[in-house]
User: What shape does this take?
Amino acid sequence: MKIIVKEGGGKGFRLRLPTGLIMNGLSAIPISAMLRRNGLNISRKQLRTLFRAVKAYKSKHPEWKLIEVRSNGGDFVEIVP
Assistant: This one.
């Protein structure tokens, strides 16, 4: 997973993490708990299903971006699984 953040005229940063480290059955446990604390009831099983779907889609569409946001002020965020 690649996360790119750039601020309006300043510097940004890039963060590379293995997708398998973030999107796996074990990480679904704390993510599900965090979502539940914030009012979203998404079970671990549902998260694992979502993770599998994202990985399968990414393998068929390598240029796919999970998130791409650009603001009027020049800020930029991109997340590529």
Q: What stands out?
A: Residues 44-60 form the longest helix (17 residues). The CA atoms of residues 2 and 16 lie 5 Å apart. The chain is about 40% helix and 25% strand.
